[in-house]
Structures are given as structure tokens and as C-alpha cells.
Amino acid sequence: MRTRTTLLDGGVHSALRAVGAAAKRGLGDAGLAELVQIRASQLNHCAYCLDMHLGIAREQGVSERQLDLLAAWEEAGEVFDGRVRAALALTEAVTVLTEGFVPDAVWEEATRHFDADALAHLLALIAAINSWNRLMVTRRIPAGGTAW
């Protein structure tokens, strides 16, 4: 088997960072942004992104209880409010696309909690973290890895 590349073009790296940063700023909720990125990274089995975003989430004040229960958010009751639950449901639907599209019910629930601008930024954030996850998992960059 050929060795997997650890290289990532500098322009691609900069562009993806810019998309993620713009999406986070536009969303305006740093804690929610981290929960979304962690949940997508859990689904994609991306140790690198999990390691990074769990640390950032703690710095942003996301509770340990939320971090501990994120993988089972649907069963976690009041730990996650309706807005966070809508964002996590959208994150899962976009990340997995099991039926080839985001279900209308998931989209409608998201529109109840986010205006058009915030929803556009949330969707961009989900797309960005999924891109990062795929780049890191495909290249098998480990948690704490520094190779690009």
C-alpha cells in the first residue's frame, strides 16, 4: 500500500479556514459552532477534529455535561435546548445524507430556530467541518497531528 499524503495545499488550507471562520462569525454563537463541529466529527470518526474542537469548546465555556452527552443528544433531554437540538439534527442530516437529501422536517425545525442569515452560516459551518473531516480522515491525520 502506498503511503498516504499528509500534504495539504496552502491555498486549500487557507480557503477552508476562511470559510469556517466566516461561518462561525456569522452564526454568532461560538459554543453552538463547536457543538456542531464536534458532532459532525463524531459521525465522521475524525480524531484530529474531535481533539481540536473539544478543546476549543471547553475554552468557549461549553459544559462538560453537554460534551459528555453530545453523542446521545436526542436522548439527553433538557441538556440541549431546542435551538441546539435543531442545529444538531441539521448537522446529522447534512453529514450523513442517508436518504440523499436533508429531510423537510429537519429543515423546517431549523428554520424555527434560525433566521435565514444564521441558517446560511450554520449550513456553511457544517459543510466546512465535513470538508475538514474528510481531508483529515482520508489522510489518517491523528489527534494532535501536525503534518499538513
Automatic annotation (TrEMBL):
Domain Carboxymuconolactone decarboxylase-like: 20-92
Domain of life assignment: Bacteria
Stored InterPro entries: AhpD-like, AhpD_core, CMD-like
Name of the protein in question: Carboxymuconolactone decarboxylase family protein
Protein's organism: Streptomyces lienomycini
